[in-house]
Amino acid sequence: MKDKVDTPTTDIAQLAAQALASATAPERVKEIVDKQIAKTVENAIEQATRSFSPFGQDLERKISEALKINDLNLPSYNALISGMVLKQVETIASDLIEGRLKEDIAQMLKNAPKSVKLSEIVEEMRAPHECDGGYGEVVTCIIEREDPRDSTCFGPEWTIYLDDSAYYEHREKTSCDITLRIRHGLKPDLNQDSDELHTGTISSIRDYTGVIASKGGREGFTTNRPYGLAQRLLAMYAAETVIEVDEDEVCTSVGDY
Fold first, then answer.
1. Other Cβ atoms within 10 Å of 7 Cβ, number
2. CA–CA distance, 130 with 255 (Å, rounded to integer)
3. Euclidean distance between the first and final Cα of the chain, in Å?
4. Dist. CA 13–CA 20, nearest whole Å
5. 115-117/242-244 β-pairing
6. Cβ(213)–Cβ(205) under 8 Å?
């Protein structure tokens, strides 16, 4: 026996009833309502934010003020970007500067001797002139000693004028590139005669540009990086190298002068 197959109806009334039942099914009604509400909200927002609407005009004004748009010039935006870049650069630069300072100080302390004679410093100053075939007085070392008022407790001090590129007479001492102040400081033995003391540490360094370093007062460590003789002396300053003023008249000439 064959299965019974329903033949599609052609009854218009019945078809209409079926279509109505399908269209008014709960899930179908919900779908239509959701779409209609979404469309209604979208239209309302579009109308409210159009340029000619009060809200749209206010929104455009707020955006314009935030970006400061003026002939495609965006200073507020530029300032924001510049600030971000500057902050990043400062972060990177501070790390580089800190690392550079650590390297410089470590190198300075490494190169500085614990003690040295003034004559040895001047000998280093003369060496390049001797290698270049120089003759006669080629560098300057002028020594001025002074004893503090309280010589019972404190040792002597020296002002030393140095120049590794030219020779100057005593009356021309201010023309020298570098001026050192060497201070013995507090005597280890108060009964010792100051005339027997010939050592001290650098208390200040001054070159032709001004003070490089100074202990005490308002003058501090240099922000400029010195070179050559000034750099070597600055290393001795930082390491508190003990300098012996071993001669009153240090040799400043080369050759058979």
1. 6
2. 7
3. 142
4. 11
5. parallel
6. yes
Give the tokens for residue 171.
């009356």
Per-residue pLDDT reduced to its tens digit, 91-111? 655 666 566 656 666 666 667
The closest of 250, 255, 253, 254 to 117, measured between CA atoms, is 250
Q: For the beta carbon of residue 168, count every other beta carbon within 10 angstroms.
A: 19
In angstroms, the CA 237 to CA 248 distance is: 22
| C-alpha to C-alpha distance for 254 and 257, rounded to whole angstroms | 7
Alpha carbons within 13 angstroms on the beta-carbon side of residue 122 total 28
- List all residues 6 or more positions away from 169 whose beta carbon is below 8 Å from its beta carbon: none
Looking up tokens 């040799």 gives 251
Kindly give the residue spans of alpha helices, DSSP state H, lying in the chain.
Answer: 12-23, 26-49, 54-67, 75-111, 118-131, 228-239
Cα distance between residue 208 and residue 247, in whole Å: 25
What's the pLDDT tens digit per position in 37-46? 777 666 666 6
* Alpha carbons 96 and 88: distance in angstroms, whole number: 12
Q: Which of 243, 183, 178 is nearest to 211 (CA)?
A: 178
SS3 154: strand
pTM, full prediction: 0.57
- The residues with which 253 forms a beta bridge, in sequence order, are 137
144 membership: H or E segment, kind and range? strand 140-146
| Closest to 238 in 3D by CA, of 97, 125, 111, 95 | 111
